[in-house]
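Try it yourself: sequence plus zinc ion, in.
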Amino acid sequence: MAMKDAIGKKLGRNEPCWCNSGEKYKRCHLSREQGRIVSHGEVAHNFEIAMKHEICLHPDAPQDCTNISKAHSLQKARVLNAIQAFNHVYTFLLPIKGRRTPDKISIDKASTFTGFCNHHDNRTFEPLEKTRFFEGTKEQMFLLGYKAICWEYFGRIALIKGLPTILNSDQGRPRDQQVNIQRTTQLQQVGAELAELNIRWLKLLMDDALKAKNYLSFEAYEVVVSILPGCSLVAATGTIFPVQSLNGKKIQTFDRTNPVRLEGLTFGIDVRGNGTASIVFLWPKADTAPRSYIKSVDALDDRQLAEYLVQFFFSYLENLHFAKTWWDSLSTSDQYLLIELMESDITEPHYDLQRSIAPWRVMSRNWL
Ligand SMILES: [Zn+2]
Ligand SMILES: [Zn+2]
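Structure, out:
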C-alpha cells in the first residue's frame, strides 16, 4: 500500500518523506518494512553505544585539558562510601515499566560520567575534595550545584546523540509501528533539545560564577539530616525545572509550541561529620520559580520534609543510588510507591508525605 502524506495525498518517490527526516521518500521509508527487524536488545545496545562521548565541560576547555577519565557525580569517598556494601551500591539502571528489583553497581562505576578532563576535574572540585567532610560553605554548595548541572548537561547531549538509533529501529516493522516510533521519538528529540537549551543557559551562568569564584548571584537551601543508624543515605544529584510548587501553584509555564527559558534548580547531597548529611538546592538569585518551589518545600514540617526529600530523589530517578539494606527494609507498598514515582512524569509527581520511608531525620534548614 502506498504511503500518504499528512493531508492524505499519495507520496511520490522523490517527495520528502512523511517522517520529516528531510530525505526523499525513496531513500527513507519507501521500503523500510522490508529491512531486517532490529531486536529490542540490539536497539538498547546501539542506543548505549551511540550515547557514549567524552568532553571536558570546564569553561576553559580545551585550554589546559588533559585526558578525560570517569568523574564521579556523587562524591565517592563520603557519599558512595556511606551506602556501599562490599564496594557495591544499588540503583535502577533502566526505567523499565514494572521493574521491581534494583541493580547492583560497583562504587567505581556508580554515578560516573566522562564530562571532565583530569586537570579540570581536580582543580574545579578541589574545595569539595580537600576537606574530610562537607562543611556547607557557599563555595562547596555552589560546586555541588555545578557538578549537578554538568552531569545533567552531559546526559542531555548523550540522549540527543543516542535518539537517532531509535529512529532507525523501525526497519522491518509494519507501517503503523513505523509511524508510532517516528512520532514518539521525534517528540522526545524536541523535548531533549529544549531541555538542553535550558540546561546550557543555566550552565553558562554558573560557568561565569565559577571562573570569577563569585557565588553571590546564587542562592542555596540546605537541609541537614541525621542518618538513622542501620539505615543510610539515598543519594542523587541533578537539575530540575519545576513548573509547579508542592501545593500545586503554577510557578512557570512549559509550552512546547512557544518555548521560553525555564528556570532551573540544581540539587546534590554530601556527607557532613557526626552522622549527618546535607541535601543542597542551588539556583540563580534572580530566578523566582526555583525560590517559589523551595518556599513550598520549606513550608513542610520536619517529618514531611524528610519524606519529601527521599521521594523527590526517586521521582527524579536518574543518578539515584542507595543501600540495599534500606531498600529491603521497606514494606512492599512503600517500594511500590517509590517505583510509581520513578515511572511518573517528573513535572507532577504525586508524593505521599504521610509515609515513613525516609532513612533520615531533619536536623536543620539553612538559606544561604
Ligand atoms: Zn522517512
Ligand atoms: Zn579540561
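One thing you can check immediately is this: The chain has one domain: 71-367.
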